[in-house]
Amino acid sequence: MRWSPTAQAIPEVKRSYTTYQPSDLEPRKLHGCLLGGIAPRPLAFVSTVNGKGEVNLAPFSYFNVFSAQPPLVIFSPARRGRDGTTKHTWDNVQEVPEVVVNMVDHQMVQACSLASTDYGTGVNEFVKAGLTPVDSEAVQPPRVAESPVQLECKVVKVESLGDHGGAGQLVFAEIVRMHFRDDVLSDAGVPDATKLDLVGRCGGDHYVRASGDALFAVPKPLATIGMGVDALPEDIRTSRWLTGNHLAMLGGCEAITEDLAPADRRMYATRDVTATVEHLGLITTSIVSKKLAAGLEDLILDVKFGNGAVLQNEQEARALAQSMVDVGNGAGMRTSALMTDMSVPLAWSAGNAVEVKEASAYLKGDEGRHPRLNEVVLSLGESLLVQCGLYASKVEARVALETARDSGLALEKWAKGIEAMGGDPKAAEHPDAILPKAEVVRQVRSPRKGFLAGYDVRQVGMTVVELGGGRTVPDAKVDPSVGLTSLPLAGTSFHSGDPMVTIHAATEEDWLRAERRWLNALTWSDEAVQAQAVIGHEILASS
Questions:
Q1: Who has the most CB within 10 Å: 85, 257, 500, 504?
Q2: Which residues partner with 334 through β-bridges?
Q3: CA quadruple 178, 179, 184, 190: dihedral positive or negative?
C-alpha cells in the first residue's frame, strides 16, 4: 500500500474506534467523554458581583477567546448536572453584567480548584481560596492579584442553551481592560508562552502545565509556501517509519536539495523528524556512509555516553560504537572507537563563537587547557596515528601530537583548513577580531557553599539553545555570539557568592533565564567529589 492523502502513513497500524451517539449516553458519561476528549482547555477564573455587592469567584473550562475585533471571550457556567440549577456566576451576571476573567498559572492551580467548591450564596471564594482581590479599573468585580493575566470585561450577551442539567449558559464578554504581569511579557510587549506557566483543564482530575518540555514550536506556514507532502520523494512518502505528522513537517519545506548527500538526507529525515533518533541502525548508516563516501582509509570514532550524550546509557553507547566499528571495518575502512564520558562538560565553554575561541586558545596555549578536552584530543589522535601505522606506540604518537600542538604547527594547519572552506584564516589566531560578541556578558555567582558534584549536561546544552545558540525549529536563526564560558570542573569547591560561570546573552532577560536553567542543572555535595575519568573503553572490530 502506498501513502496517499487519504491513507494512513503507516499501513501496518490498524486503528479501531468506539462510536457513540450523544443522545444514547447518560449525562455523566457524555460529560466525561466531552471533557476528556476535548482537552486541554484554558481556564477562565471568573470573578463577579451580585446586586448586593457580594463577590463570587469560580473557574470554568468551557472558555476561550473568539474575536479580536471586538475583543470577545465566551465562557459557560453550565447548569449543575445533578439538579439543573444555575451557578452563582450566571445569577450574578444577570444582576451586574460585568466580569473579570483571570488566567490560571501553576502557582495558583490548587487555589483555583478550591474555589470551584460549591459554596453557598454570599460566600466569598477569594477568602476561602486564600487569594488576593484587587480593585478593577473599569468594572465592579475585583481582579485576582496572583493571576498573570487579568481581563476586565463587560457582558454584552447571555444565552441559555436549556434548563436541564449540563445545559450550557453562554456569557459573551467584551474585554475593556487587559492587565499583564510584566515578567510574562516578551520584548515586544506581548505574552510569552515560555514565561506564563499557564495550566489547562483535561478530563477528570487532570490538568496540563504549559511550560518546559510541554511547550514546542510549530512554525506557521505563512512566510514560505511549503512544497506539500505530494512533492516529497516516493521513498519518503511511503516510509514505514514516518507518520502523517512527520510527512507534513517535511512537506512544509520549500524544496529538498538533491545534490548534497542525498542518501544521508533521507536517513536524517527519518532520524531527526521522528522519534527514531536513537535507532542504532540509522545512526550507524548515517555516520559511516559519509566516511566511506569521503574515501577514508582509517577512522577513529568518539562515541559519547552520559547525561549529555544522545545515548546516555554506556551499554547502549558501546553497542552503537561496536556497530559502527564493525560496519566500517566490514566495508574495508580501518575503524575503531573510543568511549568518552559526557556526564560533565568536556571544555570550558559551550556555544558557537566561544567554542571557536577556546579552540584557538587551546592551540596557542593562551589559557589553561581543559584537562578533559586535552585528554580526549590526545587520546583520539594517538589512537588514529597508531592505527594508520605512522607510529609504533601511543606514547610516541602522543609526543608527536603535543609537539605539533605546542610548536604552532597545529594552529597553522587549522588556519589553512578554515581558508580552504572559504572562511577567514585570521579566526584561528585572532578570533576576537572576527567573531561576534554578545551584548550581555556577566558571571553567575554560586548560590551556596559546597562542592559541585555534577551536571545535567543536556540542560547545559539546552541553556545555549535557549539563549539562541541552537535551533528549536528548523528555520530559526542561530546567534553565534551567545553561550557559556568558564564552565567549572566537577569537584570544584565554592563559597556562596563565588563566580561560577559566565553567560553570554543577547538580552538581560535571556541572561536571567539562562541563569535559572544553569543553576537547576547543577548537583551539589557537602563533601569532596572524585572526578570521573573521561576515557572509557577502546572499541575494536569484532573477531
A1: 504
A2: 298
A3: positive
* Global pTM value: 0.53
In-domain check, residue 196: yes
Look up cell 551567545; give the residue: 482
CATH code (residue 130) = 2.30.110.10
Q: Tens digit of pLDDT for each residue in 10-23? A: 444 567 899 999 99
Q: Are strands 298-305 and 334-341 parallel, antiparallel or unpaired?
A: parallel
Cβ burial of 248 (10 Å; 0-12, 13-18, 19+) is middle
Q: What is the mean pLDDT of the chain?
A: 87
pLDDT at position 180: 96
Residues 6+ away with beta carbon under 8 Å from 399: none
Q: Please tell me the total number of residues recorded for the chain in this structure.
A: 543
Give percent of the chain with pLDDT exceeding 70: 89
Query: Would you call 293 exposed, middle or buried from its count of C-beta atoms within 10 A (0-12, 13-18, 19+)?
Result: exposed
Give the pLDDT of residue 8.
38
The three three-digit cell numbers of residue 428, written as one number: 584561528
109-168 pLDDT tens trace: 999 999 999 898 889 999 999 999 999 999 999 999 999 999 999 999 999 999 998 999
Separation of CA 259 from chain center: 32
CA 533 vs CA 5, 344, 418, 484, 530: distances in Å: 53, 10, 32, 23, 9
Segments of 147-270 assigned E as strands? 149-160, 169-180, 198-201, 207-210
Distance CA 274, CA 244 (A): 11
All cell numbers assigned to 380: 583520539
Domain tally, the chain: 3
Residue 461: give its domain's CATH number. Answer: 3.90.1170.30
Q: Is the dihedral of CA 420, 424, 430, 432 positive or negative?
A: negative
User: Alpha carbon of 36 to those of 30, 203, 215: distances in Å?
Assistant: 10, 4, 20
Between CA 444 and CA 497 the distance in angstroms is: 9
Percent pLDDT > 90 in the chain is 63
Helices (H), 331-387: 353-364, 371-387
Which range of residues forms the domain containing residue 103? 22-214
Dist. CA 269–CA 419, nearest whole Å: 31
Residue pair 419/411 in contact by the 8 Å Cβ criterion? no
Place of cell 582509509: 297
